[in-house]
Amino acid sequence: MLIFGLIAALLGTAPTGFTAAAERVPLTRTNTKPPSLTVEPLLGRLVLSNVRPRSPRASTLCPQIETQGDRTVMRCTTRRLWAEVIIEEEGTYLDIRLLIGLPWVGELALPLRAWPIRAYGIPDECPGRLDVTRGQCELEFGTKEEAERLFKKARSGSDANFAYLRLAELALQRGEAEEAVQLLAFVPPMGPIGRLARARLCDLTGSCLSETISAQAGDTRGMEEPLKSELGLITWRREIFMGREAKAMAPFVDALQESPELCRGVVPLCQRMLIAGLSCPDDHARGAALAGWLVQSVRRGPHELELARAAARAAQDLGAPSFGAAVLASSSALVPPVELNAHLQKTVELYLEGRDLIRAEAIFDYAEGRLGAGSTSTGPWRAVRRMLKGHRVEPRSALIPAVSSVPVETLESNVGLARELARAAAARSRAQGANP
C-alpha cells in the first residue's frame, strides 16, 4: 500500500526529505544466494535476483512483474526511482520510493568536473592566488578533502557563490542531498554560477520538472563553453527522466558530436541517456540516438553491449536492418559465451532482413566455426539455413576475418545516416496516417 508524505520516514535509510510516495514490498527468497537489486531509473525498471515479490500485485509504483528463473524485472510507472532491499528479522523487503525530484547518486548522478576557473568568470588560473582557484585545482587533482576545506574558507570572500556551488556538489557526491539544498540556497540565480546552481537545486526539489519551467532553467543563451554544455547536460538528463526524449535527444547528440568533453567522467550516464533515446517510440529521437551511438567517445564504456543492442533494435525499427546487423557484428567480442549463439543468430537474421546474403552467410559460417556445426543445425538456425541454401560465396574465408573485431569505420563514415532513417520513418508514419 502506498504511503505518502513524512510517513515514508518509517522505511529506513532512503532520502526521506525528498520522497513523494513510498511502499514496502515483501519478498520471497528463490534460493540460498544473497538478494541483489539493480535500479535502472532511465529505463523505469528494477531488476531483482534471488528474490521476488510474494504477490504478483505487490507494488503500485512498479506494477508489472516478469519473473525468469531467479531474475525478476519490475517495470515502474515512474523514472524518479529510489529502491533498496532491506533484510530484517521479520523477513526481506523491497523499499521503493518516488522522489520529488531526480536521483542524485550512482552512475546517473550529475557530473562534478573541474573546468578552468576562468570559465566561471573568475579571472585566475592554477595554481591560483584565490582560495576558490586553489580549491578548483585540488579538485582537478582528485583531493576532494583539501578542495572542500578551501571552498569553506572562500565562503566569506568575493567568490562565495562559486564556493557554495562547489560545496553543494561535493555534498551530493557523498549522497547528502539535504546539505546540498541548504548550500545551493545561498547562491543568487544569476550569472553562469547562479544558473548552474538553480538547475541543480530544481532537480533535487522537483521545482522545474514541468516542460515550461525546465526549458527556462535550461536556457543557455549567453553562456560560454564548457559551462553551456554543462547546463545542457543537466537539462537533457532532466528531460529524459521526465519521458521527453523527443525534445532532448537531438540537441544532446549535436553537442556530443561537437564537444568530445561533454561526457568526460560521466560516460555511463551518457550511455544510459542514449539507450533511453534508442528505446523510446519517437522516430526522430531514435534516429538522433543512433547518430549518438556513432560517437566513439561515448560508445566505449560499461554499457557498450547494451547500447549496441538498443542501437540494433532501433535501426531495425527504422527500416535499416543491415545497419543494425553491422552494429551487432562490431560488438561480438563483448558478448558472454553463453549469449553468443543468440547474438550471432540475431546478427544473421538482420542481414537477411536487409537482403545482405553475403554478410549473412559470412556470419553464419563464423558461427559454425566458433560454436560448432551442431549448434547451427537445430532450432531457429534451421530457418536461416533454408534461406541461405544454395547461396554460396567463394572464397568465404575472405569475408570472415574475425567477426569479433568487425570494424565500425564504415558506419562512422556517414554519421547522418541515422537521422536520414528517422526522417524517412517519420514520413512513412505520416503517410500511413493520412491514407491507411
Explain what you see:
The chain has 18 helices and nine strands. By secondary structure, the protein is of the alpha+beta class. Among the domains are: 3-99, no CATH class; 106-226, Serine Threonine Protein Phosphatase 5, Tetratricopeptide repeat (Alpha Horseshoe). The strands form two sheets. Strands 1, 2, 5, 8 and 9 form a five-stranded antiparallel sheet that branches. Strands 3-4-7-6 form a four-stranded antiparallel sheet, with no helix packed on it. Strand 6 (64-68) and strand 7 form a beta hairpin.
Q: Which fold does the CATH topology of the domain at 106-226 refer to? A: Serine Threonine Protein Phosphatase 5, Tetratricopeptide repeat
Number of strands: 9
- Multimeric state of these chains? single chain
The proportion of strand residues reads: 5-15%
Q: Secondary-structure map with pairings?
A:
Blueprint: E1 3-4, E2 19-29, E3 36-40, E4 45-49, E5 51-53, E6 64-68, E7 71-75, E8 81-88, E9 91-99, H1 131-141, H2 144-153, H3 160-173, H4 177-184, H5 191-205, H6 211-217, H7 227-241, H8 245-258, H9 267-279, H10 283-293, H11 296-299, H12 304-317, H13 321-330, H14 337-353, H15 357-371, H16 381-388, H17 409-412, H18 417-434
Antiparallel strand pairs: 1-2, 2-5, 2-9, 3-4, 4-7, 6-7, 8-9
Helix pairs in contact: 1-2, 2-3, 3-4, 4-5, 5-7, 7-8, 8-10, 9-10, 9-12, 10-12, 10-18, 12-13, 13-14, 14-15
